[in-house]
TrEMBL record:
Residues 127-356 form the Solute-binding protein family 3/N-terminal domain. SMART domains: PBPb. This is Aliphatic sulfonates-binding protein. Keywords: Membrane, Signal, Transmembrane, Transmembrane helix, Transport. Belongs to the bacterial solute-binding protein SsuA/TauA family. Pfam families: NMT1. It is found in: Periplasm. The lineage of its organism: Bacteria, Bacillati, Cyanobacteriota, Cyanophyceae, Oscillatoriophycideae. InterPro entries: ABC_SsuA_sub-bd, Solute-binding_3/MltF_N, SsuA/THI5. The chain crosses the membrane at residues 29-51, 83-102.
């Protein structure tokens, strides 16, 4: 069945084509149902005739009986009428079940023969190229588990994975055609859109880890609060979500971005300088935050997403998923499968996090309230469609960067060329 994922496409022509395909699919389904209903009706009539023939034969054999028996049969007519009614109901139910059986059989035959929109799209694409930043859990789980490959291999589609240092590099690779699909911070998409890169935002993660980003200082640093960063050298990746986190953290304590000395470095570049004390602070994201993953790294946190944004962290610092326009326009069923499997990767990761947190709670090493939060989230989707609220928050980011002259002109993140909003969910 053609997916109804796309209600808004980058190009009007692609949208019209997709609507035509959807309409044709609905007509095809209606014709198939009508055909199956007719077959079921015929089967009911055939079975009914079979029962009638049996009744006639029984009646003929009854002619040798005495008139007395015939009179008794007449007296029992109401009982036979009840039996006849039950037979009719049974035949009708049997016909409906027969229709259902035929429908499932034809559907299975169609899927096995590869005559589905997904199979056709997979054969046309042949190879799916996915990019991911180090530490992006959902995509790393999906890559390790091989669920997407297992689902697409029967159609002859191969999947390749490439890691990148930052979301900015990912979207640039997307624009250059080096990859077809990726995930990364929402901030990077603002700078990429301002640079006229070609991409489409197609989904977002529902929750951002409250400790997922942090501002670190050396262990022996005299810097104790964000206010102490005035005049200091701060390392971060330009155009990344860390960039936005720093801007908002400074504003919260009354500092301007011009009050600090920005040192634009990728995380691998910044780490040795931070260790050597050549920068005063470092704004980082996973996997370098103060978690078990980063336990061996130097420094201590003076602020994180939770302290800066409170319960709005998921809205203010989102993680998005991006695709090339061709994937959105020409391969909608394939895109739907990708998003479903990314969601499975996220759901699996949340369950593992919940189990680990439960073990900590049993030994009184963690607040039980955290377990309750994770239990709620483990029952929810890992990624969701893009909505107006998400884009409004992202637009707020874009406006801030323009006001700081960090991007050359204002961008409209709700532009359908760059952001796919769906009226209905693509969930299964």
């Amino acid at each position: 069945m053609i997916s109804r994922l796309i209600d808004l496409l980058p190009r009007g022509a692609g949208q019209n084509i997709l609507r035509s395909l959807s309409s044709a699919t609905r007509r095809s389904a209606a014709y198939r149902f009508a055909g199956l209903f007719c077959i079921g009706l015929v089967s009911v009539l055939v079975l009914s005739l079979a029962f009638d023939s049996h009744a006639v034969a029984a009646s003929a054999s009854g002619n040798v009986l005495s008139p007395l028996v015939s009179h008794v049969n007449q007296v029992k007519l109401p009982k036979e009428s009840t039996i006849r009614l039950l037979e009719t109901v049974g035949l009708f139910v049997g016909g409906i079940l027969f229709c259902v059986f035929l429908d499932r059989w034809f559907s299975n035959r169609s899927a096995q023969s590869g005559n589905t929109p997904l199979a056709e799209q997979a054969r046309r694409l042949k190879q799916l190229k996915i990019g991911y930043p180090e530490g992006m859990t959902n995509l790393e789980v999906l890559r390790a588990k091989g669920w997407l490959e297992s689902r697409l291999r029967p159609f002859g589609l191969s999947v390749t994975w490439t890691s990148f240092l930052s979301a900015s590099a990912l979207i640039e690779a997307l624009s250059n055609g080096a990859i077809d699909f990726c995930g990364g911070g929402g901030t990077a998409s603002i700078f990429s859109q301002a640079a006229d890169h070609v991409f489409v935002r197609v989904a977002k993660e529902k929750y951002t880890a409250p400790k997922g980003q942090a501002i670190l200082v050396p262990e022996d640093s005299p810097i104790q609060t964000v206010a102490d960063l005035k005049g200091k050298k701060i390392a971060f990746d330009k155009g990344s979500s860390a960039h936005y986190v720093l801007v908002r953290a400074l504003a919260k304590v009354g500092l301007e971005f011009s009050d600090i000395e920005p040192i634009y470095l990728t995380q691998p570049q910044a780490l040795p300088l931070f260790r050597a004390g050549e920068v005063d602070a470092w704004v980082i994201w996973v996997p370098y935050t103060t978690t078990q993953v980063r336990s061996a790294y130097p420094g201590c946190s003076i602020a994180d997403l939770e302290s800066i944004f409170g319960d709005k962290a998921s809205l203010e610092v989102p993680t998005y998923y991006y695709a090339i326009p061709e994937l959105v326009r020409d391969y909608p069923d394939l895109l739907k499968v990708i998003l479903e499997e990314v969601n499975e990767g996220g759901a699996w990761a949340k369950k593992q996090e919940l189990e680990a947190t439960k073990r900590l709670a049993e030994h009184h090493e963690i607040d039980p309230s955290i377990v309750e939060i994770l239990q709620q989230r483990s029952a929810e989707r890992a990624i969701i469609p893009i909505d107006d609220q998400s884009l409004t928050a992202l637009q707020h980011q874009a406006n801030i960067f323009r006001d700081l002259d960090l991007i050359p002109e204002r961008v409209n993140v709700k532009d359908g060329t760059y952001s796919l909003q769906t009226k209905q969910n693509w969930t299964y």
